Amino acid sequence: MKPPIIYDDSWEQQLPERVQSSNIISSWPLFKLTVETKKQIIPDDFHGLLTPSFLPSIDFLPHQTAAARTVMEEMNGTAILADEVGLGKTIEAGLILKEYMLRGLVSRALILTPASLVNQWARELREKCQIYSLIQKKNPDWSWNGVQIASIDSAKQPKNAEMIADLLFDMVIIDEAHRLKNPATLNYRFVRRLNKTYCLLLTATPVQNNVDELFHLVSLLKPGHFGSNVSFNTRFKSGKRSIQDQESFKALLQKVMIRNRRDETEQQPVKRFVETIRINPSPEEKIFYDALARLKDAVPNAMTLLTLQREACSSKFAALSTIQKLPGQEREEVSKLAEDITVNSKAEKAMSIIKKQPEKTIIFTQYRATQRYLEHYFHEQGIPAVSFQGNFKKGKKDWMVELFKGPAQVLIATESGSEGLNLQFCRRLINFDLPWNPMKLEQRIGRIHRFGQDQDVHIYHLAYEQSVEDRMLTLLHEKIHLFQSAIGKLDDILDQNWIEDHLHDAFHNSKSIREWEIKVHNLAAALE
Amino acid sequence: MMSFLKQFFNACHCQIISHDDQSITVELTEEADRAFMNRPFYWYYKDRLNEKGVPMTISFFVKNTGKSFRPPEEYINFGSPRFHQLLDYAKKQSSFVRLYEQCSSVKPMKLEPWLFVHFLVSYEANGKKERIESLAIHLISGVIYRDFLSKISELPFDHTIPSFHYVLSPFITPVSGLKRLRQLLENELEQEDNDWSIQAKEKQEKELELLHSFYEDSEKDNELYQKEKEAIMRRFEPAIRLSILNGGLFYLSSDHFHSFKNAQSFS
């Protein structure tokens, strides 16, 4: 079949009138310049990228240009970009968007991100790709004929969603797309209804809990790629989270998903120095901590005790709400011991690290109470510190990062909402307490050890000697490389959940600490 | 980039105040300021007061040395929206021209009419490539030449007839001349190898099948199915788009017609 030839006759229409007109601006240099310049910039091949030579001041990395080519040449502009955290997915998406724009295939584009990342997207697109976008805020104008960025939460509101559904976008890009794994959610239904030609979904964690999530994500992008819901179940699923016929499953997956891994892409990897510091508790802290261990009969189960002990390892304030729930007598005893503690040895250690060599430092804690305490403590010591947490409004988050970039020396962050936080300008991180899930630790470190970091990073784990944390360190975090290598691979993207599931199960369902330890130990042995 | 900027601002009669190999500073004309600087309020205000406005002076840098640019300084490259704005302007201004060859001869000479057109050919499917065809037809004999720009690019042209010269009237109207050029080009395009479109069609078929299978045994949501189907059509549907970048009537001294004949024509 021959392709149809579609002729744009607008020039021809105007020709008779222009031939007669005496008022014609005729510049021979401009006439030649237009043609000669146009010849230089039109795409003379279906393949290859124009963008890198058009934006000479940006050094796109090899894995980024390779990904852009694959998306354009093989995936036809519909893809899941699932690079590991910190490899520059935003730039990759920007590069693809720019390429489609330069080829004249895209002019109207919609980018949906978490509210906290809207400004960052606009900045990166502007600085790296010279794409100038419109940020949709209070009174959005969705008919804007260019690149627009909105938070997915505002876009999906009924009044906006209705207007958006009537429009056609040449390209839709969705960041943090793992939030679209459940077809019953408003997010999912909203994105599904979007009228789009090309689509990019960005996520570092395409699967979090089970295989169905991957099915739903792919079906959003390319319905039918994995078959229908029914045929997917019979063909690929075996049990809740395993996959049969892995070969063809992977082959299919690789047609819609690109996943670059850190260890494959970094040519001159920035080194990561990890130091575990075991701290001797003060006598008061030791008495308090030992008293907790004797509460076995006062708490409903072993895991509550473990939770309490872990909280106590962070700060007495973090443990307070759990202590409040203890029976009367124990509560008073323990509260009394807590009151006796006047210094937090970990905070002192953190301070000495910071003072030894003044430098931007990010401190992670799991507890809001500890965060508040630390902020107060640093202020008292004359160290400018700011807090960062997930429930801050977008503007406040941006402002906190700006403060940290500027006058503040310390940023105290809780885990939630730290995704998407880019702190390449900082190269020291202190883990004030330790999460039970080693992957969480990796995410924390990913905030500074990421694409764009050009100096070695220093990580400090703080743990009290002979505490539950100490045991967790031995058990989990010193084996982290084992877990990491098993988890990072695309091939094992499904097995990854199996591991996390086990860790989760071990932590939440064990009847005693000992049982938990044995389970994790067995898991580690299995991986070895 | 630098050569584009120099040629562009010269052609637009903007004065180049200074330039080196990294930057160029130009004083815009009023027309250029209105077209590029995006300050309608300023010009509206000046117009209402019936005052003469002061066009801006602007500097373009073609290398990004990491220094921060402050208006009126700009970094410009082939990826910049600014560059595309300038090129669009050039395209619009040169969309149709009427140009006369400037001969230095003092004896009367006749100039012959040509219709000279640049076609933009876009091959679109699951990707896009383009090329430019430079075609001209001699509006007296009907002879057609391709790659015409390279044949005449060194000749001097201007928008007025030089003294002592006169122009011949065309036998072929510009409109029918254009039809002949287009016909010729379309015939040629139809003869071209079209593997690219067959491949795109095959991919499109496959995608449609997959889509169909997805909706086959689940409840059929017609609206979503149609949306996805249309998206697949848009992503893969092959077509050749033909448009005209620029063109016009060119009056050339008759000598050239004979010298071109040595080069191959195709008609």
UniProtKB/TrEMBL annotation, chain A:
UniProt cross-references to SUPFAM superfamilies, sorted A to Z: P-loop containing nucleoside triphosphate hydrolases
Pfam family, one: SNF2-rel_dom
CDD domains assigned: DEXDc_RapA, SF2_C_SNF
Transmembrane regions listed in the UniProt entry: none
Molecular function GO terms recorded: ATP binding; helicase activity; hydrolase activity
Limits of the Helicase ATP-binding domain: 70-224
InterPro entries noted in UniProt: DEXDc_RapA, Helicase_ATP-bd, Helicase_C-like, P-loop_NTPase, SNF2-like_sf, SNF2/RAD54-like_C, SNF2_N
Entry keywords, A to Z: ATP-binding, Helicase, Hydrolase, Nucleotide-binding
Record Gene3D superfamilies: P-loop containing nucleotide triphosphate hydrolases, Tandem AAA-ATPase domain
Domain Helicase C-terminal residues, every copy: 346-491
Protein name per Swiss-Prot or TrEMBL: ATP-dependent helicase
TrEMBL record, chain B:
Key words of the record: Coiled coil
Coiled-coil segments: 175-235
Pfam family, one: YqhG
Highest taxon listed in the record's lineage: Bacteria
Name of the molecule in the record: Uncharacterized protein
